[in-house]
Write a structure and sequence with these properties.
Elements lengths: L6 E5 L12 H13 L4 E3 L12 H15 L4 E5 L5 H14 L3 E5 L8 H14 L4 E4 L2 H4 L5 H8 L4 E6 L4 H10 L5 E4 L5 H6 L4 E4 L6 H12 L3 H17 L7 H9 L6 E2 L8 H13 L12 E2 L1
Parallel strand pairs: 1-2, 1-8, 2-3, 3-4, 4-5, 5-6, 6-7, 9-10
Length: 305
C-alpha cells in the first residue's frame, strides 16, 4: 500500500549552536512552526539540512526530534541517500528506528552510475526496508539523471512510491507524469516549478521556501488542488522573489541566513557551507522586507564550523 506523500513537504534546515552542535530545541521549534502552518510532510536530513556534514548519530537525533514533534500531525520523510549503497541501507535502518515514515533518497553522485546501476541501487535499498522511498533526482548537483524509463521500472517496486524532481526539465517531468502509474507520486524539488509541475499531473513540492513562509506555500498547493488556479497563481507570484533569492548563492546558505535574520535559528553553518557574501545578504534582506518578513537587528556575517 502506498503512503500518500503529497502536498507540501519542507526540506528542513538543521539549526546549529555556536559550539557546533545540533540545536535540539530549535529543531523541535521549527518542526512545530511548520505543522502549525499546515505543512503536510517534514523532511529532515536532506541537502537543505546540510546532511552530508551530519554524523549518523546526529541524523538519528534530528529525525527523532522531528518525529516526536510530528506525532501523527505530519509525515516524516527522512533523508537517506548517497553513493555508497551499503551505507544508505544502514541509514535507512537508522531512520526507521528514529521514527521516520519514509525515506527521501538522493541519487548516487559524481561517478555517474548507469541506469541499470541506479535501478539496482534503489532496488537494494527497497529490499532492505519496508519504509516507502521517494527517489530524489537532482542531476544538476549529482551529475546523474534517473531517466523516465528507469523510474517506470522503479515504480514497479512496491515500496518505491515516488520521485522528487528538481531537474528543471519540463519535458522530462511531463514524460514522467505520462508514464508512471497514477499512484506514483511526482513532487517538485524546485519551488519555482511547483505550479507547472502540478498542472502536468504532479502532487506538490518538497520545498525550501516553506522554511520561511510555510503557510503561503501550503496555500499555493492547496488552492491548486481544489481548482482555484487564480489563487494558486497569486501565491506563486507572491513567493517567486523569495524562491529565486534562496538560490542567489548555494543552498542552504541563503535560506539559513534568512531564517537566522528572522530570529528562528543561529547563523551557524558547517563547512564547506558559509554565510552569503555581503551583496547576496543585501538581496536576501531586501526581498524579506518587501514581503513583510521580520528582520532582527544586529546581523553578523555568520559562523562556519
Amino acid at each position: 500500500m502506498r503512503i500518500p506523500f503529497t502536498g507540501v513537504g519542507t526540506a528542513l534546515i538543521t539549526p546549529f549552536k555556536h559550539d557546533g552542535s545540533v540545536d535540539a530545541s530549535a529543531v523541535s521549534r521549527l518542526a512545530r512552526r511548520q505543522m502549525d502552518a499546515g505543512v503536510h510532510i517534514l523532511v529532515p536530513c536532506g541537502t537543505t539540512g546540510e546532511a552530508p556534514t551530519l554524523s549518523v548519530d546526529e541524523k538519528r537525533q534530528v529525525i527523532e526530534l522531528v518525529a516526536a514533534e510530528a506525532n501523527g500531525r505530519a509525515l516524516v520523510l527522512a533523508g537517506a541517500g548517497g553513493y555508497n549503497t551499503k551505507e544508505v541501507i544502514h541509514m535507512a535502518g537508522v531512520a526507521k528506528e528514529a521514527g521516520a515514515d519514509g525515506l527521501l533518497s538522493v541519487t548516487p553522485y559524481y561517478n555517474k552510475p548507469t541506469q541499470e546501476g541506479l535501478f539496482q541501487h534503489y532496488s537494494a535499498i527497497a529490499e532492505s526496508t519496508d519504509l516507502p522511498i521517494i527517489v530524489y533526482n537532482v542531476p544538476g548537483r549529482t551529475g546523474c539523471n534517473v531517466e523516465p524509463a528507469t523510474l517506470v521500472r522503479l515504480a514497479a517496486v512496491k515500496n518505491i512510491v515516488g520521485v522528487k524532481e528538481p531537474s528543471g526539465d519540463i519535458a522530462q517531468i511531463n514524460e514522467i507524469c505520462c508514464l508512471v502509474p497514477a499512484d506514483f507520486v511526482v513532487m517538485s524539488g524546485d519551488d519555482a516549478i511547483t505550479l507547472p509541475l502540478m498542472a502536468l499531473g504532479g502532487h506538490g513540492v518538497i520545498s525550501v521556501v516553506s522554511n520561511q513562509m510555510p503557510s503561503e506555500m501550503v496555500q499555493l498547493v492547496e488552492a491548486f488542488e481544489r481548482g482555484a488556479l487564480d489563487e494558486s497563481r497569486h501565491w506563486h507570484r507572491t513567493l517567486m522573489s523569495l524562491m529565486q533569492v534562496n538560490f542567489v548563492e548555494s543552498n542552504p546558505g541563503p535560506v539559513k541566513f534568512s531564517m537566522a535574520s528572522m530570529g528562528l535559528c543561529e547563523r551557524v553553518y558547517r563547512l564547506p557551507m558559509v554565510a552569503p557574501q555581503l551583496g547576496a545578504r543585501d538581496k536576501i534582506l531586501s526581498v524579506m522586507r518587501r514581503l513583510g518578513l521580520p528582520v532582527v537587528a544586529g546581523l553578523t556575517k555568520g559562523v562556519s564550523l
